[in-house]
Amino acid sequence: MTAKAKKQFQAPKGTFDILPEDQKYWEKVRKVIKHVAIGYGFERIDTPAIESSDLYALSAGETTDVVEKQMYTFKSRGGDPLTLRPEGTISVMRSFLEHGMQQLPQPVKLYYMAPMFRYEQPQAGRYRQHHQAGFEVLGDQDPIYDAQVIYVCLLAGEELGLKNLSVEINSIGCSKCRPAYRSQLLRYYRSRTAKLCKDCKRRMKKNPLRLLDCKEEKCQQMHVNAPNLIDHLCQECHDHFKLVLEYLDETSIPYVLNSHLVRGFDYYTKTVFEVFLEDEHVEGGSEKSHQRSKLALGGGGRYDNLAKALGGKDVPAVGGSLGMERIIGVMKKQDVKVPTLFKPEVFLIQLGALSKKKSLRLFEDLRKAGIVVAESFGKDSIKAQLRSADRLGVKISLILGQKEAIDGVVLLREMDSGVQESVELEKIIKVVKDRLKK
Ligand code: HAM
């Protein structure tokens, strides 16, 4: 294949196909997320993959990397500025406001599983299209929901069989207590400006809190002695955070306080958290915290001011989401067993024009009876069809030849012993079911 042709057959940089052999992992993740979500009273929501670009400028803060550098933004043919959604929370809040969900009993608990798009430098665990499973609780300020969201995120990972998960948690305060802290932080970094990276110098002007979030080694060293946000919380944020921790203490969650944890979106207030895989060195992973290289499987927090930023009323809310590719990456690494999706028990072989015609109907009768059947109808030789049956490891092959089709019978072949017997077509379903039970 020429280099040009090869390129033509390549998915765009940072994106990939989910091939049949990987679908079992995705099926499992979707199933477990749904199960956990429904168990905790979350209802499914699906929002469009495109949103008006203004939404992100209003809500995520123009100083976040995602909004500043990573959005896929374009103009529609009609000239409307549109963006491929980089995350789900803003869309969910937009939908909540658009559909007047304040009128529903509060809180409204919603979950989603959807692709997100970020123009990032692709590396292990970081893609330009990735999928998130998210849980959002809208319309309630009670700290018990902060704890519940964190618990649900962790639980989903655990129910998927993942080991060594841990949670880091922090409070980043609110619009009342953050300004004073910001001044302190600026004072600390001002004397060290020369040593900061280019992005951090910009952050000093635009959003000093994000200084703490810098992944550059030299900047990280400076964070160690930076003033702690937790020591500067107002009474309300302090009490809220204390209760979140007390609720978490009632669960078995292994959480760690990380006073330098800030998140990549400006919409957060009070509680922020991330779910990590502990003690794993992740190749190419850049999500570092406490000088250790760890993979963030998920994250979230409270976003009480987001609705107002979008132009709506006060809607206190909290949520979190998990990166589905990263979860699946860990499942594979930890060798989590997942059932094969297509495991046929019976192979249907046809020989001759008449039996080929009848085999479609017989296949459907077997399927309807709950028997998983395979075929290779395009092949005409018995040898080739038996080879396919062998490869699939079925217990039984049913052979419908020309004579059998005329006589209204089918040959049942036990694959292990090779023993064959003739069974009347009307009785075949019952006989197959009985044999499969043995
Ligand atoms: P986030 O931390 O940006 O938060 O993304 C959540 C998770 O998605 C990350 O922890 C990571 O596992 C995964 N993820 C993010 N970017 C990528 C990428 N480029 N490639 C692969 N996986 C990625 C949010 O998006 C917030 N909306 C979470 C939230 C929900 N906050 C409140 N509710």
TrEMBL record:
EC top class named in words: ligase
Q: What is its EC number?
A: 6.1.1.21
MF GO annotations: ATP binding; histidine-tRNA ligase activity
Task: Please give a single GO biological process term from the UniProt record.
Answer: histidyl-tRNA aminoacylation
Q: Which PROSITE patterns match?
A: AA_TRNA_LIGASE_II (PS50862)
Assigned protein family: Belongs to the class-II aminoacyl-tRNA synthetase family.
Q: What is this protein called?
A: Histidine--tRNA ligase
Gene name per UniProt: hisS
